Amino acid sequence: MQKLPRSFYDRDTIAVARELLGKFLVHQSSGLKRAGKIVEVEAYLGPHDLAAHSAKGLTERTRVMFGPPGHAYVYFIYGMYHCMNVVTGREGHASAVLLRAIEPVKNIEGRTCGPGLLCRAMKIDRQLNAQDLLSDNFYIAAPEAAESFSIIKRPRIGVDYARHWAKRHLRFYIKGNPFVSRP
What we know:
183 residues
């Protein structure tokens, strides 16, 4: 597996979201290397996207989204779950891709079909917020051989408050993959 370069993330968020499918999320901690194939994502297009955290502007929580591409934006929700986004686009644009589900590949226990479950299984928490995804212990890599699959587009989940942005088809997943959070 080859680690994705910074240039991969420094592009249009929708393109990055679609191309993250089939890539491998890798996290090494406590001497254990965990890996999962990304099978479901959601794109958040910046401050003009009312469903994006950056829609409220630059805050301490969203600072990493406004930074350079290729970093992790990890936050805590509902008092119990961590969620991980990949910062995309040019610095200052504040767009990101939420990782919604992975297919377990190596050393993963527990369910992975949902952003909170994914983070729990991969041992991802706020300590990894703002972590450079080009590091040696936390990164996304391309598979050795490209896999052929169909991509399904659907509205994002849990963003009904975002008015017309809630209906935009910005959730992408691998058709037929059993680890997708919901069809």
